[in-house]
Design brief:
With 268 residues, the protein is α/β, with parallel strands linked by helices. It has a single domain, classed as P-loop containing nucleotide triphosphate hydrolases (Rossmann fold, 3-Layer(aba) Sandwich), CATH 3.40.50. It contains nine helices and nine strands. Helix 1 crosses helix 2, helix 3 packs parallel to helix 4 and helix 4 crosses helix 6. It is globular, with a radius of gyration of 18 Å. The chain starts with 6 loop residues before the first strand and ends in a 16-residue tail after the last helix.
């Protein structure tokens, strides 16, 4: 990677409850664990979930005297002048290896501005047709894809704008979060629809984070599964979740980290 070009990873999904903020923090901390210099931008100035998560991380490390890797954080509101502030923040962090941007679960000028500059777009979704409807509509009888939906169209517009601006492409990755082994038929149908739509609008499908209590328990301390040694008790569930996180980071196919040249896919 060029030293003055931060790779921009944008978490985008207008459907709430998909695990977007949790995924953003785990991606950022995984990259930091691999030696990268990482900036994180939280565009939801009201909820500030990502910012609060990383603030908890700083406080917990200080309280326990732990040497946890940290990320630089900025919170930007959704006002008339804040698109310019986002641009200035990203330009100011050009020397970082990566910048992770968590967008709010709604359409906004800031979210569109972030999409327009993304190198990698990550869209977490729960494994259901409720979430699938964000990117595509299906026939109620056959579950075949009828047409792309509004978010897919917005990404298409952002990709065209990015191509005209600097000739770069946006790698779009859809993460299947919260997979359940109890709904095998639904999983097959959603998976089939994703495969069909991916060929039409151009995204990759990757495994995300499953529904585990551990992810919710980590928030007050600002920890991720990569900080598992700081936990008082480590269970088999924690180990399985850490392997799950490894698979997700590897599937993103991010560039090599500038510091030391190690592959990010080996970060976990």
């Amino acid at each position: 990677m060029a030293a003055q070009q931060a790779h921009l990873i944008v978490l985008g999904n207008e459907k709430g409850g998909s695990g977007k903020s949790t995924t953003a923090v785990h991606i950022a901390v995984a990259l930091a664990h691999d030696g990268a210099r990482v900036g994180v931008v939280d565009l939801d100035a009201r909820q500030r979930t990502v910012a609060r998560y990383l603030e908890n991380r700083v406080a917990f490390a200080r309280k326990r005297d732990l040497a946890l890797v940290q990320c630089e954080v900025a919170v930007i509101a959704d006002g008339d002048s804040d698109v310019e502030k986002l641009g200035a923040t990203l330009d100011g962090w050009a020397g970082h290896d990566f910048v992770v941007v968590d967008t709010p679960g709604r359409d906004s000028a800031l979210a569109r501005a972030a999409l327009a500059r993304a190198d990698t777009l990550v869209t977490p979704m729960n494994d259901s047709f409720v979430d699938f409807d964000l990117i595509g509509q299906v026939d109620p009888e056959t579950f075949k894809v009828k047409r792309p939906s509004f978010f897919a169209e917005m990404v298409w517009d952002a990709r065209k704008a990015r191509g005209k601006a600097d000739g770069a492409t946006v790698d779009w990755v859809v993460l299947r979060n919260r997979l359940s082994s109890l709904e095998a038929r639904n999983m097959r149908r959603v998976g089939g629809a994703l495969d069909e739509l991916s060929k039409r609008v151009g995204f990759r499908v990757a495994p995300g984070l499953s529904e585990r209590v551990i992810y919710r328990e980590l928030f007050p301390r600002g920890l991720t599964l990569l900080d598992i040694d700081a936990l008082e008790e480590v269970s088999l569930s924690h180990v399985a979740a850490r392997a799950e996180l490894r698979a997700m980071i590897a599937a993103l196919g991010l560039p090599a980290v500038a510091a030391g040249g190690a592959a990010v896919s080996a970060a976990a």
